[in-house]
Design goal:
By secondary structure, the protein is an alpha+beta fold. The chain is built from 2 helices and 6 strands; from the N terminus they run H-E-E-H-E-E-E-E. It has one domain: Hotdog Thioesterase (Thiol Ester Dehydrase, Chain A, Roll), CATH 3.10.129.10. The protein is globular and about 45 Å long.
């Protein structure tokens, strides 16, 4: 991990702040940590608010968790622009119930215009519940212009 005052660490903390500031995250008990360049981990706690009618977590929550983890893994490598998801494929492998879930995202390839990253969901029993791969494109939105993007 870089020293706390380095440019890379400041970028990681600013992305964590950006994540926390997003209005959608008021609907989820979650916390982002950028572990290293190209690696993001989001800790979620799921409950009945996230369930479909049959009593398990709805697919929209799977998508949100996987997309966010892959997105932040990719955006950890881009210091000037906000990325946009252009495509995302996911695979459901186990139903999720209430409790803690970790979404782990990793950058795979690309650093110029399009980046590819994948993510997986790990449940409380340390079993994989889903995985996904996304492509992310640089937008015209400057990170520095976003109110939530700030270190410390």
């Amino acid at each position: 991990m870089p020293p706390p005052d380095s440019g890379e660490a400041a970028h990681f903390r600013a992305l964590e702040s950006l994540y926390a500031s997003a209005p959608i995250n008021r609907l989820f008990e979650s916390r982002l940590e950028i572990v290293a360049a190209g690696i993001a981990r989001i800790h979620f706690v799921l409950d009945e608010r996230h369930f479909h009618a049959a009593g398990a977590v709805h697919g929209t929550s799977y998508f949100k968790m996987l997309d966010d983890a892959a997105f932040y893994a990719a955006n950890s490598l881009v210091t000037d622009r906000f990325l946009l998801t252009t495509a995302f494929n996911l695979l459901f492998t186990r139903p999720l119930g209430p409790g803690p879930v970790i979404a782990e995202g990793r950058w795979i390839s690309g650093k110029r215009r399009v980046l590819v990253a994948d993510a997986r969901l790990i449940d409380a029993e340390e079993e994989e519940a889903a995985r996904g791969t996304g492509t992310f494109m640089r937008s015209q939105i400057a990170l520095s212009g976003l109110p939530g993007y700030r270190a410390g």
